[in-house]
Amino acid sequence: MTGGGELLPATVILGASRGIGRSIAKIAARDVATVVLVARSEAHLEAVAEEIRSAGGRAVVFPIDLASRDASKQLESFLAEYGLFCDVLVNNAGYGLRGAATLLPIADQLGMIDLNIRTLADFTLRFSPGMARRGRGGVINLGSVASFLAGPNMAVYYASKSFVRSFSAALSQELRATGVTVTCVAPGPTATDFLDSSGAGRATLFKILPKLSADYVAEQAWRGFRSGRRLVVPGVSAKVLIVIATVLPNSLLLPLVSRLQRRKSDLCPCGSGETSAKCKCSSLRS
Ligand SMILES: NC(=O)c1ccc[n+]([C@@H]2O[C@H](COP(=O)([O-])OP(=O)(O)OC[C@H]3O[C@@H](n4cnc5c(N)ncnc54)[C@H](OP(=O)(O)O)[C@@H]3O)[C@@H](O)[C@H]2O)c1
C-alpha cells in the first residue's frame, strides 16, 4: 500500500485464476509494471501471483465474486488503496452452459448474462473514461468464435458473446482518437476447464474441432492488443469457422449447430421428458 502521491499503472485481469486469464496474466506481467489478478478462488490467484513474482514480475491479488453488483467499485477502491490506476483492463471472466434454453435453469442462464455481459460492461464503463482522459491504455474483451453466429443448445452463451463483439467494436471506434485500444479476442475451442464446466466438451462440435492452448490464445490476445488491433482471432481453425458461419445461410447453419451441440441423452426441449434420441416431436426433425 502507498501513503499517497502519484498513482501507478496496473493491468487488471478478471478471471486470472486459471485458463486463458491466467495465461494472459503471466504474459502481461513480462511487459507491464503491475498486474492485478481478480477471480473468486484466492488460493489459485495466490499461486499465479507467486509464479509471476518468481519470474521477476509484480502481482497483487483481489479475490471477489465478479457477479456482485458493486464489484467494479470495490476494485476501484482497492486500486486507489494500493496507489494504482487501471491502465489496461482484461475482461476475461465468463462461463458457458450447454443445453436447451427451455430446460436449463433460468437463474444459471441469467447469471451468464450477468457475468459475460453486465460485469464486462460495468468494468469497461467504469475504467475506460479514465483511460480516455489519460490518452493511454485499453481494454481486452474475451469474445469467442461463438459471437459470429447463433448457437442453438448454447443460446445464451453465444448471444452473450455477440454482445461482447458488438460492444467492443463500437467502443474501439469511439475511443480511437484518444489513443485507447479496445480489442475483442475471438478464440475457438481452447483447452481449459471451460469445456468441462460448460458441458460443451461433451458435444460433438467441440469433440471434432481442434483445441487451442490457453497460452497460445493469450499470446495472440496480448500481441494483438499491443499492436492496436480491434479483433484478434487466434488460430487458423477459428478463422475458417468464422468464414463458414458468415457464408452459410441460417437455414443450414442453425440446424447444423443445433445437431452438433446436442447429445442423444439430452432431454428434448419440447418438454416431453423423452431424450432427444427417442422423442418424435417436430423440433428435432429440423
Ligand atoms: N475455453 C474456450 O473454449 C473458450 C473459447 C472462446 C472463448 N472463451 C472465453 O474465454 C474466457 C475465459 O475462459 P476460460 O476457457 O479460460 O475459462 P475457465 O478456465 O473456466 O476460467 C474462467 C475464469 O473466470 C473466473 N470466474 C468465473 N466466474 C467468476 C465470478 N463469478 N467471479 C470472478 N471470477 C469468475 C474463474 O475464476 P474463479 O472460478 O476462481 O472465480 C476463472 O479464472 C471466457 O470469457 C470464455 O467465455 C473460452
UniProtKB/TrEMBL annotation:
The chain crosses the membrane at residues 236-257. Gene3D superfamilies: NAD(P)-binding Rossmann-like Domain (3.40.50.720). The keyword Transmembrane applies. GO terms for cellular component: membrane. Pfam families: adh_short. Signal peptide: none annotated. This is SDR family NAD(P)-dependent oxidoreductase. The lineage of its organism: Bacteria, Pseudomonadati, Pseudomonadota, Alphaproteobacteria, Hyphomicrobiales.
